[in-house]
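User: tokens in, sequence out, please.
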């Protein structure tokens, strides 16, 4: 399992919004400049965060984006699953996977299940606030 730039950049965007939260909206270009992320890439990430109720956006003069959830309520696991999809290390554990015909005989299956649970527990135990406090 490898977290893509999409997942990493989503976290950076949300951290930026949390750190610069003065109640107003932050223009996308300001986020892009501070984070060194292209506007084109942000235009693909921000709608996912907005559609899922993590950020709010306003267009036009004075517009931009702001974090609408408390950083303490923003679990890293939820954000990564939005941007990455399932965090399963193998296909047979993916949410919509067909049942594996070898699951009952597969000696490695319990290993992957344990790893999957560990990864999800780890990311679900961390919040944006945890990252910002460091």
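Assistant: Sequence out:
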């Amino acid at each position: 399992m490898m977290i893509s730039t999409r997942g990493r950049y989503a976290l950076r965007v949300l951290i930026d919004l949390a750190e610069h939260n003065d109640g107003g909206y932050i223009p996308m270009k300001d986020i892009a400049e501070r984070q060194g992320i292209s506007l084109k890439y942000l235009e693909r990430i921000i709608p996912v965060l907005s559609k899922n109720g993590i950020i709010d956006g306003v267009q036009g003069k004075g517009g931009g984006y702001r974090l609408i959830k408390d950083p303490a309520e923003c679990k890293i696991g939820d954000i990564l699953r939005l941007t990455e999809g399932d965090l399963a290390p193998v296909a047979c554990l993916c949410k919509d996977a067909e049942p594996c015909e070898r699951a009952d005989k597969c000696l490695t299956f319990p290993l992957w299940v344990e790893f999957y649970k560990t990864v999800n527990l780890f990311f679900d135990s961390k919040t944006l606030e945890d990252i910002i406090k460091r």
